[in-house]
Specification:
It is built from 14 helices and 13 strands. Strand 6 and strand 7 form a beta hairpin. The chain has two domains: about 230 residues, Type I PLP-dependent aspartate aminotransferase-like (Major domain) (Aspartate Aminotransferase, domain 2, 3-Layer(aba) Sandwich); about 120 residues, Aspartate Aminotransferase, domain 1 (Alpha-Beta Complex). Helix content is about 40%, strand content about 15%. The relative contact order is 0.18.
């Protein structure tokens, strides 16, 4: 009986050793040795001014909403094709979400439509790097600079992804990573906020420490710490960071393995693409992706539903992705769509994600591709 799951959390084997070291250190709350190692490693990998580990990608986004001083009545621009956390982080601060259509080739926000969505209430632009493929950041940065609007990159799927050689998450004012068990690098639940402007570093540390200047106290910069700003408990456990550090110590191990699997899928499914039966992911020349996911696009929703059901019967986990937020009850309540939904709904209904994880065997990839070919025959 075939059983190929959609996802298996990454595990290299060094995680146990580092968790034991964290336990033996007698400091398992946040900001211990492994938390600091993870912060420093991601600063080295991305070039960000400061990286701070958080309890989730969601909490990283919530921190950026505070850092952008989002208030009731403000507007925040983002694609509708994203996870609910992208919107929730700003709705919690009272903002109205302004959804913009996506590009059909990358499933990223259409950079050409952003400027038309800007009003005098716009206080942030949130590009989402879908599947670890970078948005057109030069255009987005130019728009943001001319209108003096901060950029928050939702790079939850973007670790080890690059745009013109620059790490995703380290291009705008702030970036957010996720280390959920479905991500390329995982600690079960966790995330990180990337602070790319020196002037925001101190406040980011304060917000992350429940609004206190505790971090400055431990560095000896103040003689006692106290409540100085808004904040919350966004500090990640040392045990989680120890687990993650085992994977990012040499990030190429996981990255190269996933890229090999992604390329094999692409090779085996290209004949169906060449016949016009399905579409495969598109990677712009200026982008270096991280093989976060491999998806195909079917003709329409009906065909995708039938293919997903067929693969399930064959023991293969293949799943669709987001329901566009603007069509959800909360999206209608807390947001509005700018312009025409030309591609967001149509393209989301065609997309089917295939099994993709560290350690996925070539044999299993060939089985998945074979069953897809059988379905279309």
């Amino acid at each position: 009986m075939i059983h190929i799951p959609f996802n298996v959390p990454p595990y290299l084997g060094t995680e146990d050793k580092y968790i034991k070291q964290a336990i033996d250190s007698r400091k398992i709350c946040g900001d211990g040795g492994f938390t600091k190692k993870c912060n420093a490693k991601f600063e080295e990998m991305t070039g960000a001014k400061k990286v701070l580990m958080t309890t989730s990608g969601t909490s990283a986004l919530e921190m950026t909403a505070l850092l952008c001083n989002i208030r009731p009545g403000d507007e925040v621009i983002m694609p509708s094709y994203t996870f609910v956390s992208t919107a929730n982080a700003f709705v919690l601060r009272g903002a109205t979400i302004v959804f913009v259509d996506i590009r059909p080739d990358t499933m990223n926000i259409d950079e050409k439509l952003i400027e038309n969505a800007i009003t005098d209430k716009t206080k942030a632009i949130v590009p989402v790097h879908y599947a670890g493929v970078g948005c057109e950041m030069d255009v987005i940065c130019d728009i943001a600079k001319r209108h003096r609007i901060p950029i928050v990159e939702d790079a939850a799927q973007g670790v080890m992804g690059f745009y013109k050689g620059r790490a995703l998450g380290a291009i705008g004012d702030f970036g957010c990573y996720s280390f959920h068990e479905t991500k390329n690098y995982s600690m079960g639940e966790g995330g990180a906020v990337l602070v790319n402007r020196e002037k925001d570093v101190d406040r980011a540390e304060i917000i992350r420490e429940k609004g206190t200047n505790r971090t400055r106290f431990f560095r000896g910069q103040v003689d006692k710490y106290t409540w100085v700003d808004v904040g919350s408990s966004y500090l990640q456990s040392e045990l989680n960071c120890a687990y993650l550090y085992g994977q990012i110590e040499d990030p190429d191990i996981i990255n190269n393995d996933r890229l090999k699997s992604w390329n094999r899928y692409y090779e085996m499914l290209s004949p169906l693409r060449d016949k016009g039966v399905i579409e495969l992911p598109f990677i712009p020349d200026e982008c270096t992706h991280n093989a976060h996911m491999f998806y195909i696009k079917c003709k329409d929703l009906d065909e995708r539903t039938k293919l997903a059901a067929y693969l399930k019967e064959e023991g293969i986990g293949a799943v669709f992705h987001y329901i566009p937020l603007h069509s959800s009850p909360a999206g209608c309540k807390f947001g509005r769509f700018s312009g025409e939904d030309k591609y967001t709904t149509k393209e989301s209904e065609r997309l089917l994600r295939l099994p993709m994880y560290y350690g996925l065997s070539e044999e299993d990839i060939e089985i998945v591709a074979d069953r897809i070919n059988r379905f279309y025959k």
